[in-house]
Amino acid sequence: MEVLFNHHDLDQIWNWNASIPATMDHTVHGVIEQNAANYPHCSAICAWDGDWTYQELVSIATQIAPNLVSDGYSKNCAVLPICFEKSRWTPVAMLAVMKVGCASVILDTTLPLSRLEAIVRKVDPPVILSSLANLELAKGLTDQQVIVLCEDTLSSFEASSTPVLPIVDASADLYLMFTSGSTGTPKAAVVTHSNSSSAIYHQQAATGFSRSSRVCDLANKMIKVKQVERYGHRNNKGTMTTERLQHEAGKL
């Protein structure tokens, strides 16, 4: 059998990785909040169901987050599933979860029910965040509480002028990304705030993300490039545009 990988190849790989990039010890939501402070009126989300500036994005997430803490959902970085269609509410849910020190896992609602059930069983969440459209689906995945985020329910979240939120370390888990599960039980890769912040910082020149970037949210929700889109453009003060799923292909 022909040898496809030899010692020379291994040496070459180590040479390519001789210079280790510096670690960025920042939380992702901390960077987003800094952007909101510096550029409050810049567009953050431009979606089919409405637009938000950075200031609005952070303000709404901050309104939601303390309610998660007060109800006891922030326990040793619990993993909270997010069950939304493509919508402006998805990044708000993700940001609120970050702010209470929990990790998120995006539930791709186009996947078979058995697959979603396996993911939820694996993470054993204390609560699921859901859109109104996916409420019945989310209820069928858990015996725990389902919190609906939408325009009609936002007023039910008590706003505080001085919200008490935990201090989140950059080493805390940010999100989970599950494998295809082709070998059996789905397995998850865990990405921390530091992992994500470091990757975005060092890849910024190559990706071209900037303040004027408008990133169209088209990729499948479960793949990692989706997370890079969501976190990367906001860390560089760009705008994420989101279309209704059923209309995307025809508009390209």
TrEMBL record:
InterPro entries reported for this sequence: AMP-binding_CS, AMP-dep_synth/lig_dom, ANL_N_sf
Gene Ontology CC, one term: cytoplasm
Xref: Pfam families: AMP-binding
The keyword Phosphoprotein is assigned to this record: yes
Domain AMP-dependent synthetase/ligase span(s) in chain numbering: 33-205
Highest taxon above the source species: Eukaryota
GO BP annotations listed: amino acid activation for nonribosomal peptide biosynthetic process; secondary metabolite biosynthetic process
Record keyword Ligase present: yes
UniProt keywords, alphabetically: Ligase, Phosphopantetheine, Phosphoprotein
One of the record's GO molecular function terms: ligase activity
PANTHER family referenced in this protein's UniProt entry, alphabetically: NONRIBOSOMAL PEPTIDE SYNTHETASE, SIDEROPHORE SYNTHETASE (EUROFUNG)
Protein name per its UniProtKB record: Acetyl-CoA synthetase-like protein
Native species: Massarina eburnea CBS 473.64
